[in-house]
Structures are given as structure tokens and as C-alpha cells.
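User: Hey, quick favor. My workstation is busy. Could you predict this chain's structure for me?
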Amino acid sequence: MIDYKASKEAFVSGMTGSTVFHVNMISSVALSSIALHSALRSRVQAFGSAYFLAEFVILALPLLLSMTLFAEAPGALSLLLLVPMLVLLLLPPLERGTPLLAEIRDEVTSPNGRSRAETPPTHLSQSLRPLPALTTYRAHMMLMTILSILAVDFPVFPRFLAKCETYGVSLMDIGVGSFVFSQGVVSAIPIIKDISYLQAPILPKLKSVSRRMIPIIVLGILRVVLVKGTEYPEHVTEYGVHWNFFLTLALLPIIEVLLHPLILHIPVALVGLWIGVLHQFALSSGGMKDFLLNGSRSNIIFANKEGLLSLLGYVSIHILGLSLGTVILPPSPSFFRKQQQQLLDGPSSYQPSKLDPSAPRQNAKIIIELLSYSVVWWMLLAFVRLGIEVSRRMANISYVLWVAAYNTSFILGYILLDMVFFPIRTSKIRDPTDPSGKRLLVEEKGPKSSAPALLDAINKNAFILFLLSNVATGLINLNIQTMFVGNMKAMCLLCAYSMGMCVFAWLCRRKRLWKM
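Assistant: No problem, here it is.
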């Protein structure tokens, strides 16, 4: 058992990774599967009684294949998905849905018939409109994480996709950062709904957030106890002897609260970027890099140097995710900036008619903003990598920029697919129930977009699935010597595992099991 433990640790250690392009190609399989699913949904009637099975085959199975049997040829797998999608595009789209009256305003009309002013509605809902593309992105990211944490233990999962030892890029390296980035995106929701939350006293917010994070901290401690107690193979250079990803996840929302005074006055993306720069300065000029790579583990702090020193890099990623959330979640990319300005200017500048978070999204403007951010992050990454190689172990500035560029680009891809297959057109019409003829309604026409049912189910209970997958991975590894399993048997086990995770999500799709 001791010999196998040592062999298993060596099996997942010393990796140097792949290339950014290769990781992007593997991840693009997820976009291709969504394109095929969207083409089917927009041009063919529902799958009927085989709905779950069809979604599993189209949305989950390709992800598993992309990181195993097709890992060296992900483009071929994408092509296999895109060819039937292109054939489906020859069919006319289904006519679905009815016009949605989205927004009401009273308009005062001048003698020449032109609009002079608008008065705000008497009541504004403070709920944000659903963003199906974000649900799809988060669910696909979680599904790839769930699949890879078990698949990496089998030889069928190529070693170049496993986490790199110190420097390099791989699928599992980007998965860790994407998890944090995704958490940052949705953490923008309460701030957008109520911008005054940023000005609320720090201490009560810290107490509230800390209470919510206690279960995750407990899970982190429990994981340490179980790993040490069962002599489970572990990779110490990932986070340290006792630290783990749960502890990092738990601390990020707490640190975010401490940054609220900065976020109120400074552009969020700039806050995230500067944190990454300061972290890199500490690594390069403060001696932290040498300590992390060569320092001893003589006490409990030094023993967990990777987890502690990488924390600031993950804070940077979390804040950059928060920044993106303020762009894609509200009705327009400038919505949050206007909220910031009005809050700083005082109550006299508040204009509710222009700051209704439930208003229709200006998708074209959001796309342009996302495209701009993508270009900036990729260019910065290319420049920084000339002198600083990507390191997930340190969460250095190159890693931060890679995670930001990757996730911004793929969220852009999901939103574009939604716009292509489920286009929405808006127009203003006069309210027929208003005798004065001054009230205008914003009418939305087009097929209603929604996330695929399976991915919506996965997203609803994502963290529970993440916990369940960790437990299942541990049990499988304790009972099977996975590194000696052949490819055929490994694929059967992985298919059964992925089916089990999806079935669990599907059965619990109507209820959120854990509200964080």
C-alpha cells in the first residue's frame, strides 16, 4: 500500500503541461456541444421521454471524450459536433413564444409628436434578468471539473492535462482558476441589486459572510483529517501539507468584503489587476518565489506555503471575476459604473428610470465590452509571458491573466451562441390600455432562451455535486488501483461516474440543496 501510495503520488507529480492553444481547443468542445444542442432546440421539437439521455450524450459525454480519447485531437471531436449542427441550420427555426412586454414608461409628447421626457414607473423590481449563457458556462465548467478530478487518476487521461508541478499550462490548471473566477462573477449579484451594500459597515458584513463560509471551512478541515487518516495519495506541492482548495474558496468572499471601500471608488477590474501586480512584486522582488520553491516546511505556516502564498493571486482572480459580473449581469456594461457614480454623488443624483436592473439587456454593448476585455487580457498575457511563465502553484500574474482571458473569452462565446440561436428583438409600442396614448411598452420578440435543462440542474446544486464528486473519487481510489486500469475499463468507469453525477443533478433539479 505504501509503495502504491508513493507510485500514485509520482503519477500525478512533475507535470509540465501543454499549450494555451491546446487547452483552448479542448475547452472549445464544450462550445461545440452547446452549438449542436441549441441547433436541435431551435429547429427540432423536444426530445420527448429521452430528454435526459439526449442531453447527457450531447452535453456531458463530449466533455469526457475531449479529455480522454480525443485529448490529442479535440478539433476532430468539435468537428463531429459541428457538422450535424450545420446540417440542422438548413431547417427553418421553430416559432416559439409570445412578445414580452418588458418595461413601462410614461412619455410626455410634445406638439410635434416627439418625446420630451420620461417619468419612471411607480415600482421597479430589483431582480436581475436570468442570463442563460452564464448558467451554461458555470455548469460546463463544473462538469469539466467533476470529470477531470477522477479522470486524472487513470492513464487514459493524458499527463499533459494534469496540474503542472511549478510552471506550465494545463486543463486542470485552468479549471482551478475558472472555479474561483466563476465564484467572483456571481458575487456581483448582491452588489448590482443594491449598490449601497458597498457602503455598509464592514464588521456586520464580515460576520454574515464568515457565517456562510463556516461549513466550507469545516469541509476543508474534514478533508485534511480524512486524507491523513486514510493515507490517501496527495500532492503536497499543490497547496501544502494541510491546506486545500476548500480553505482558499472560503477565504475569498471574506477578503472581498474587506475590499469593498476600494471597489466603491476604483474600477473593479483595476482593483483585481493591481492585486495581481502586487502579488507578483512580492513573488519576484520580495523573495516569496524562492521561499515557495526552496523553503523548508519546518512549521505549520511554512508547511502550507503554497496555499498561503497563492491566496493573493486567487483574490485577484476572484475580483476580476466580480468585475466581469458587473459587465454581463446588469442591463448594460455601464450600469454598475453609473451606480458607483450616483452613490458617490449622493441621493440627489439618483435616477431610478435609468438604473432599473430588471430592464432588457443591451446585448450588443455587452458583447463589445467582453470582446474588448478579451483582447486586453490576451495581449497582456502574451506580453507578461515574455518574462514570467504561468504558474498555478504561485498563482502569479501570468496565471491570473490567463484565467481572466480564458474565462472572458468563453463567456463571450456562450453569449454569442445564445444570440445567434435565440435572437431577441426589442421595439417600443404604445400601451393600448392607456387612453392618453403617452405610455410606452418595450416589446421583446423572439424565441425565449434558457440554459439546457441538465446544465441548469448541475448549476443549481453545483457545490453539492463538487462535494459528491470528491467523495466518489476518494472511494474509487481507495478500492481500485486506478493507475493500472486499462483504457477501456477506465472509460466504462468514467462514463458510469459521469452518468451518476448527472442523474443526481437531474433528480434534484427542482430543489436547491445548499444555499451559500
